[in-house]
Structure formats: C-alpha cells, structure tokens
Design brief:
303 residues; mainly alpha; globular
Length: 303
C-alpha cells in the first residue's frame, strides 16, 4: 500500500471533518446536536459496526490472529503507560497537569477515529481487531486511568466497564470464536447502522474544530512536539518488536494504525470531572486528529 493511496483515503476523512466544520459555522449544528450525535455514535453506531465487522469476518479472521491482536493491544497500553511516565515531565511541570499528559499518551482515540480509519483503509471486516483494542482500552482506563487521577481504585469505576462498547466487543469475540452465522437480514441491518459511524464521527470532530480557539490549537509548539512523539516516534520505536511477533502484513499494518491514533476524549472528560484546566488537552485532541491525516500514511509506509 503506497503512501499516496493511504494519504488520499485519509484526505477523504479530512473532507468529512471539513463538512462538520462547515455545517457548524453555518449554524446547522450546535453543541446540543453534537452531544446527541456523540451519544449515538458511542452507544449505538460504533457497537453496531463492531458487531457487523465480526459477523462479516466469520471464517476470514483466524483465532490465532485474534489472540495475537489482543496480546499486542495489551502490550501497546503497557508501553504507552511507561512512555507517559517518562516523557510527560518534558511537556508539563505542574504535577496535576502532568497527569493529563500521562493520560494523553496512553488513551488514544482507538474507537471514534480508529474505526473510520481502519474501515476506510483496510475494509470493515478488519474492524473486529479494533474491538480488541477497545476492550483493553476500557479495562486500562477504568483501572489505571481512574487510579492515576484519584490515587485509588473505586468500585464505581469498575462498574462503569459495563457499557455498550465492551458488551459489543465481547459479543463480537463470541461471534468469531464460535463461528456464529447471523441471519442475512440481521447482518444487513447492523451493517447499515454501523456504516453511519465513520461520517458521523468525523463530522463531530469538525464541530469540535469549529467550536475551538484556533490560536490555542495551532500556535502551541509543545503540542506539535507532543503530537509527533505520540503519532510517529512511539509507534515507529515499537515497530521492530511488532515485526518479531507478527507475520501477517495486514495485521501488522492494522496494529501500526492503532499505535498511531490521536489523543482520545477520555483524558479531557476525566480532567473536567476533576476540575483541572483541560485547555491543552482539548487542543491536543484536535491537533493530533488533524495531523494523523499525514502521520498514518507515514506509519504504513514503514510498516
């Protein structure tokens, strides 16, 4: 897969982000609409896409590949946790704000952005791999993420692991493991619902871009350095290890894309809940999302 092939596919995603920016600036979408869209994506369309991917992948994705993807996902989060601990002091001196940077290193947008990117580059049947990254993400977030911010685990955070994303991920694993063939009418319905995910998620990113202060996003040199480290340096540093354990070139490419996803929303949400200043986090989310249009093709060029 050439650089320009992937670049133009990523450019198509950028155009969808631009559509969200345009409709927001024209007053056709407001914060209330965006919040409702985001709820639908997280609770309905993303889970449907994960299930549809599994249903359409029965017999095509081997169990060995699924197990390997799960182990790699766990390894990725461990590597990012260590990287966040070591590198976050270079970007932030304040102790509380440093926690936000640690979270930004660890919690990428593997679902909201990862699913559209994987489905557009490789095809929807490979989204099933994303579901494994999302399951590990959930486990790590509600244990390590909450403990980092609060200094302790809580039963409430563990209960929050049960959500539409994890349920759909577990169901997707069951479909693959047991080779369950869903009826065609059901497969068609969940596939159509899942196909809504990509354009709607990218339009929501466009809203965030239109609703933000451009200077705070694009005029902070440290955020560019942070984004390059997160989107390119760390994934490329881990690439030799991936090559040692992965023989399947497609799985290798999918994992590289997962490693190079932009900052996710959960650090922002946690910071808001704890009353921290999340200005830099908000800017990093948008900046890294826009930059991944360029960095993902570079990762696949090497991977």
């Amino acid at each position: 897969m050439t650089f320009f092939t992937v670049f133009f596919q990523m450019l198509a995603l950028l155009i969808m982000i631009g559509a969200g920016y345009f409709v927001t600036k024209k007053g056709m979408m407001d914060r209330h609409t965006n919040d409702q869209m985001s709820d639908l994506i997280v609770n309905v369309f993303n889970p449907m896409l994960v299930l549809a991917s599994a249903a359409n992948s029965v017999g095509q994705i081997s169990m060995d590949a699924m197990k390997l993807a799960g182990l790699i996902a766990a390894g990725m989060f461990l590597a990012f946790i260590l990287a966040g601990m070591v590198l976050s002091p270079l970007f932030e001196k304040d102790r509380e704000q440093r926690k936000i940077f640690q979270l930004m290193f660890v919690f990428s947008n593997v679902g909201f952005i990862g699913i559209p990117v994987i489905s557009s580059i490789f095809g929807t049947e490979y989204v099933v791999y994303v579901s494994e990254f999302m399951l590990v993400y959930t486990l790590v977030f509600y244990t390590y993420g909450i403990a980092l911010m609060d200094g302790k685990f809580s039963k409430a955070s563990l209960r929050a692991m049960i959500n539409p994303g994890t349920v759909s991920g577990i169901l997707a694993m069951a479909v693959i493991i047991f080779g369950i063939q869903l009826p065609e009418f059901l497969k068609t319905a969940i596939t159509y619902l899942g196909n809504v995910t990509s354009p709607m998620a990218l339009v929501a990113v466009g809203f965030a871009l239109a609703d933000s202060d451009m200077k705070k996003i694009f005029c902070q040199p440290r955020l560019y350095v942070f984004s390059i480290v997160k989107l390119l340096v760390l994934p490329l540093a881990l690439l030799p290890l991936l090559r040692l354990v992965i023989a399947d070139t497609v799985l290798l490419a999918v994992c590289m894309v997962m490693f190079g996803m932009p900052v996710g929303n959960m650090p922002l949400i946690l910071g808001n809940q704890r009353g921290l200043d999340v200005t830099s986090c908000s800017a990093a989310i948008i900046l890294s999302t826009v930059l991944c249009v360029l960095t993902v093709p570079v990762l696949l060029l090497f991977g």
